[in-house]
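If your schedule permits, I should be very grateful for your opinion on a structural question. I have a record of one protein: its chain in single-letter code and its fold written as discrete structure tokens. Kindly check, if you would, that the fold set down in the tokens agrees with what the sequence suggests. I remain grateful for any guidance, and I place the record below:

***
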Amino acid sequence: MNGHGPYRFLLDTGTQLNHLDPKLAKSIGLRASLRVEVISAFAVAQAPAAEGIEIALESVKAGAQRLVFSDLETVHRLGYDIKGVLGQDFLSRFDYLLDLRAKRLEFSKQDRTGTRAEFQTIHGQQAVSTSLGWLLLDSGTAWVVLFGEAGPRTNDILTLAGSSKAGTVPRKPLIIEGRTIRYDELVAVPGGNQAGVAGLLPVSLFKSVYVCNSEGYVVLD
């Protein structure tokens, strides 16, 4: 990151922006030059940010990146000394494979087998057409989530911008390009700030997810 590091970052396909711990930003001389809106499914918040930053991850680099200075309270609960979050501002520059079985991230153009689905970019994130509507491909959730539906409020869903009460509701078929996807729970939240999006699709439902940003499709295996 501008020649500093390495630092441990969380990868989040369901986050549009990149985030950085303010203490680390101060220690490496990064200063906020603007304020940005941090939009999640449940909240909108204003936060300071720096721009024009180069981020390198092994062999790949992306310049002209923005980093939002966030307290990362939700992320710090995971431990692992995480200093920031890489979101779609960075990821959208590349074609990449999330190998969930091998716990590996690969940046390259690949010919993958599996269920191929075109995606739409909505609010800077990839949304896949499903039988439940357009769902954002999200590595930050373990549940299939639907917005705008009521249910018993039994769980807290936490995001970088805020939290919401959610409840488990009866499952509905989840079908993508004719393939029925098995999942455990369907969670409903009463609101949703992202127009055009029906909910969240967890990447953990698949063995691997290949995102071809250069051609606008994903392959779900």
